[in-house]
Amino acid sequence: MFVLRETSKRPEGPVTIERKDQERIVKVEAGTYGRDLGSVIADVRTGLAGMGVPNDISVEIGGTAEDQAESFQWLLTAMLVGIALV
Question: CB of 48 within 8 A of CB of 59?
């Protein structure tokens, strides 16, 4: 585990407010150098669970992790259809 403030950099340049569906959002990006995506996501979720995120804040994990989860859902659906047809 690591402390984000020890490994992160503050962006330089003008401050902008990003919005999605007219709500403010904050993006946190990270690399997974030397580790598999599944274990990184598990560590992120464990860390978030221990933080006690307030109810009015939502956390979404997107990007490659979201693509991987969607691919596994399609794979599971294809397997179930294949089993049903056999």
Answer: yes
Q: In the beta sheet, which residues pair with residue 20?
A: 23
Please spell the DSSP secondary structure of 22-60, one letter per residue. Answer: TEEE-------TTS-HHHHHHHHHHHHHHHT--TT----
Name 61's Cβ contacts closer than 8 Å, sequence gap at least 6: 41, 44, 45
pLDDT tens digit sequence for 21-69: 888 888 777 777 888 888 888 888 888 888 887 888 888 887 877 778 8
Q: Return the higher-pLDDT residue of 84 and 32.
A: 84
What is the H or E stretch that residue 68 is in? helix 64-85
Taking the domains of the chain in order of start, what are their residue ranges? Answer: 4-61
